[in-house]
Design brief:
homodimer, ATPase_NBD (chains A, B), ROK family protein (chains A, B), 5-stranded mixed β-sheet
Chain lengths: 285, 285
């Protein structure tokens, strides 16, 4: 877990200099009490105005409820905002971590200067969020932006979602690991991308296949959503950005009527989610 | 061309009773003067407050400019709002006809009661527009909603857009006609759908293929855009709604994590576009 503390009077224009910034151990046993204790430690003698928590999983942001947590099952169904707020005596907002990271990237990261960015994170899964004017476009049921589950290969591999050939079955970290190991490579996606960068022939086909699948999904995104910028982040999109660069080139080659926006790597790295919490907290005042 | 005249004091809650409603001949030779003459005929002795024109093609709505007209090439590049407004002495708005129809369907048609509808029109091409709170979500370059150009069959038939296997290459009216004629059927898509309704075996496969492709595109739409309702209109979606009913069933069967909204046939028919102009005119005051 990452913790960031900033001055509540910080301007919204740039990421504020943190008063505290460190990794903390997530309290798995008694998460609500544990989180309260962590906040008290971070706060120290300072007076606290607001807490914003980003959670991997499905969140009812309006009511501060964790519907389904990816990593802390004991939080499932927890009215976290209300309970933690009661313990701390300040408002507590609960947001999806992908949404928090997307808002930060769109506003302070690679999307800065555009009021319309689609931000995706390539990792085990593929999270996406369309951020317009600093706010995630949620969809009617809060589930828009699932770029990872666009069908790219209709008869492709079985996806965790139960369908076949989703983008995630080709470019998700487990899929890349499997393809790389099947080709005789050792290690996971980072090792694959390093081998690609070093010009290893057996890495080329796998990385081109992944970039091609990503390009197809991005063309669909352009046709349906027409974003002003596409920001690609997550563990698989880090420097030297081979996947992003390849996908950008393929989208440009394959586009016909599409209005293709700039496709750029994310810049905030692993702290995007925590920065998004800061931004949402400052927006809330 | 269709013309509708309504009382400018009509409420926005329901489609107003028209003072005039009829088809007119589009003036191809001198379109701007011709349109002005038609408006004068329709107006008669009444005082006119505003004209809203919907045009098939690419429109710069903010500036009233026809960028590329599908049917009247002499309008390409025309500052139609300014020129027609100058002739008539009233404000003239120029909108895309698909957008106008979508706004009307979402507000007064099959989308009534929901503040979030994706409206598509199945015809020669496939137009789509996401209407939220009565307004089309335009995308960063005004080109969102191109459901017809989602890739459904990666190595499929060549599309008018230059790519392969777009939804339009399977369910567009020319594609259905070709498939039907190749199977020995006579006539076009309406004849195909009539034969399907009558239980003709050779029509079954073609219509199921089309409905299946539509279902795949709608699942992608649900994953990326998450609309609150899907309204299917256009010539190929008319009663008895075989395509809409089949596609709705297939989306329900194939959905996994998707939040599937109601999928319903449009109700305003061929007058949706004209009704959308009325709605936009009343909104503008």
């Amino acid at each position: 877990m990452k913790a960031l503390l900033v001055d509540a009077r910080s301007p919204l224009s740039t990421p504020p200099e943190p008063l505290f910034r460190d990794r903390m151990t997530t309290p798995l046993a008694d998460p609500v009490d544990g989180l309260a204790e962590i906040v008290r430690q971070v706060r120290g003698e300072r007076s606290l105005q607001r807490v914003v928590l980003s959670i991997p999983g499905l969140v009812d942001q309006a009511n501060g409820v964790v519907i389904r947590s990816t990593n802390i099952p004991s939080l499932d169904g927890c009215h976290l905002g209300e309970r933690l707020g009661g313990l701390l005596g300040v408002p507590v907002d609960v947001v999806n971590d992908g949404h928090a990271a997307a808002v930060a990237e769109a506003t302070w990261g690679a999307g800065a200067g555009s009021d319309d960015s689609f931000v995706l994170a390539l990792g085990t899964g593929i999270a996406g969020a369309h951020v317009v004017d600093g706010t995630v476009v949620p969809g009617a049921h809060g589930s828009a932006g699932e770029l990872g589950h666009i069908t790219v290969e209709p008869d492709g591999a079985l996806c965790s979602c139960g369908r076949r050939g989703c983008l995630e079955t080709i470019i998700g970290a487990p899929a890349l690991r499997t393809a790389w190991n099947s080709a005789g490579g050792e290690g996971g996606p980072r090792s694959l991308l390093a081998a690609f960068g070093a010009g290893e022939a057996r890495a080329q086909g796998i990385v081109f296949h992944a970039a091609s699948a990503l390009a197809e999904a991005l063309l669909t995104l352009c046709a349906l959503v027409d974003p002003g910028r596409i920001v690609v982040g997550g563990g698989l999109a880090q420097a030297p950005h081979a996947l992003v660069t390849l996908a950008e080139g393929l989208v440009g080659e394959r586009a016909t009527f599409h209005r293709v926006p700039p496709i750029v790597p994310a810049t905030l790295g692993g702290w995007a989610g925590a920065n998004g919490c800061v931004l949402l907290g400052l927006q809330a005042g």
